[in-house]
Design brief:
The protein is an alpha+beta fold and 483 residues long. The chain folds into three domains: 111-257, no CATH class; 273-409, no CATH class; 413-480, Homeodomain-like (Arc Repressor Mutant, subunit A), CATH 1.10.10.60. The protein is built from 20 helices and eight strands. It has helices at 16-26, 29-42, 57-71, 111-120, 126-137, 149-160, 166-176, 189-197, 205-216, 218-222, 226-233, 237-248, 298-309, 316-356, 358-363, 374-381, 385-392, 424-436, 446-455, 462-471, and strands at residues 46-48, 273-278, 281-286, 294-296, 396-399, 402-405, 413-415, 421-423. The strands form three sheets. It has a four-stranded mixed sheet with strand order 3-2-5-6, with helices on one face. The chain has a two-stranded antiparallel sheet with strand order 1-4. A hairpin with a 2-residue loop joins strand 2 and strand 3. The longest helix is centred in the C-terminal third of the chain and has 41 residues, at 316-356. The radius of gyration is 34 Å and the shape is extended. The N and C termini lie far apart (89 Å).
């Protein structure tokens, strides 16, 4: 039996404009420029504002041509026409006589191609070449062979139906160990360092001692048990120091030493905000240099006006064309409003951060950085925490003392013994300075560091010191020990 009943539901739905704003908030200035260009290509109603001075002459000419075309646009242009010229339907609409010149572009070779080139210089039969190719293919970007030889042998058996034994594979690995850069194809750090030290003059006393340390006392060396090494090798502290200096010159990641400038990618940071000091006052502005101003084309607005003035005399095809144009107009308005809301939200959040951290931004002294979390800025601005998070993510500010990501200014806080609230970043700075200035022959333990911080009114536990030290990527005292 069918029943009809009424139910009330409370649903939260996002408008197209809200969705646009959320998506645009997440992207930095560098991606915003590309996003605007994509929208301009998709929507013919959008165009650059006439007072945009930053476009180059080509774009200005191109824009003027487009505007001239739009001035002559009518609804008839959007009605389907079977007499469309054939050249409009062809993707390759150039003459057979046109000569297409291709400019050759030379790029450098990759690390693996460098290894393959060396392999091709070796005299190997087809079987050996096949096995060696598989081994080289399993070497990672650091230059290590991190897979077991048995696994590589199994791959070759299944993929190529070639039976090989472990000795044959290891013999070919020895050939690869002779490749440049030194240490390539090593299966662990000890083997990597050994391959490199073996290429040096082993008759030299420091190199000879370094070889023995890596070969026989590598475990003690990694744990910095220098006393044990000196005693077992019967050498002085000076001899040990010179040998360790030789080891420290070796490259633990040989693959990283192969740097090809032609294939190197460089990341350029374009700040989203610019902070300047004018007449002793902080002046904040958005970096709109690469963000063109947009507007809705008058030609399309006039088209709608003409249609509304003569509604009675319009055909069904013209009505459909107008519906399409109206959709594009609405989409263009939403996009322009979304860009404006994005800019306003960015400024609102950054101004709140600037006001909250005014003392820090005035002097650039990290010790003046107050504890600040996303909720603090959300409470000041009246925005949602997720909105503040989107604004602070992947955004940068250029100040008179450097360029910083917005996330840099957010940190937790704690109270000193006097009740003053300080940023954990300030504590980490003191911790870093203490470790930087310590006696490396007797590095400070976490317990000792906690005592030093306590003497400076920072009452934190040893495990908290260990946590901050790990966040700073500083090893434990034993591994910081030097001769």
């Amino acid at each position: 039996m069918l029943k009809q009943s009424l139910h009330q539901k409370l649903l939260q739905k996002l408008s197209p404009l809200q969705i646009q704003v959320i998506k645009l908030l997440e992207i930095p200035t560098t991606q915003l420029e590309q996003r605007i260009k994509e929208e301009l290509e998709k929507n013919p109603v959008l165009e650059y504002a006439s007072d945009n001075k930053d476009e180059d002459s080509y774009e200005e000419n191109d824009s003027s041509e487009r505007e001239h075309e739009k001035d002559n646009i009518s609804i008839d242009d959007y009605i389907s026409n079977n007499d469309t010229p054939s050249y409009k339907l062809q993707s390759r609409n150039y003459s057979k006589d046109d000569k297409q010149e291709e400019i050759p572009f030379s790029t450098g070779i990759t690390f693996h191609e460098h290894l393959v080139d060396q392999l091709n210089l070796r005299i190997l039969d087809d079987r050996e070449k096949l096995i060696a190719d598989y081994i080289v293919g399993n070497i990672d970007e650091d230059g290590y062979l991190r897979r077991d030889i048995d696994e590589i042998i199994d791959d070759i058996v299944f993929a190529q139906n070639v039976e090989i034994d472990e000795k044959e594979a290891l013999d070919l690995l020895d050939i690869i160990h002779d490749f440049d850069p030194p240490g390539v194809g090593a299966r662990d750090l000890q083997e990597c360092l050994l391959l490199q030290i073996e290429r040096k003059d082993l008759d030299s006393p420091p190199v000879s001692i370094a070889y023995k340390i890596i070969k026989f006392y590598f475990k003690e060396f990694t744990r910095k048990h220098y006393d044990k090494i000196s005693k077992r090798l019967n050498i002085t502290d000076d001899q040990l120091k010179t040998a360790i200096d030789e080891i420290l010159k070796l490259n633990p990641k040989p693959g990283s030493s192969y740097s090809n400038p032609m294939s190197k990618t460089v990341q350029h940071i374009i700040p989203d905000f610019i902070l300047e000091i004018e007449n002793g006052e902080l002046q904040l502005s958005l970096n709109n240099r690469n963000v063109p101003e947009l507007r809705i084309s008058n030609a399309y607005s006039d088209m709608i006006s003409d249609y509304n003035a003569n509604k009675q005399n319009q055909t069904r095809e013209k009505k459909e064309a107008v519906i399409f144009v109206k959709q594009k107009l609405d989409s263009a308005k939403w996009f322009i409003d979304a860009i404006q809301q994005r800019q306003n939200t960015l400024m609102t959040v950054m101004e709140a951060i600037l006001d909250y951290q005014k003392e820090y931004f005035s002097e650039g002294d990290e010790r003046k950085l107050r504890p600040m979390i996303l909720k603090d800025i959300a409470d000041i601005t009246g925005l949602d925490i997720s909105t503040v998070s989107r604004v602070s993510n992947s955004k940068y500010i250029q100040t008179h003392f450097g360029i910083f990501p917005l996330k840099y200014f957010f940190s937790e806080g704690m109270q000193t013994t006097s009740g003053e609230e300080v940023s954990t970043r300030e504590i980490k700075k003191i911790l870093y300075d203490c470790i930087s200035n310590e006696d490396k022959s007797k590095p400070l333990t976490d317990e000792k560091l906690a005592q030093i911080l306590k003497s400076k009114s920072y009452n934190i536990a040893r495990r908290t010191v260990a946590k901050y030290r790990e966040q700073l990527n500083i090893p434990v005292a034993r591994l910081r020990k030097e001769l």
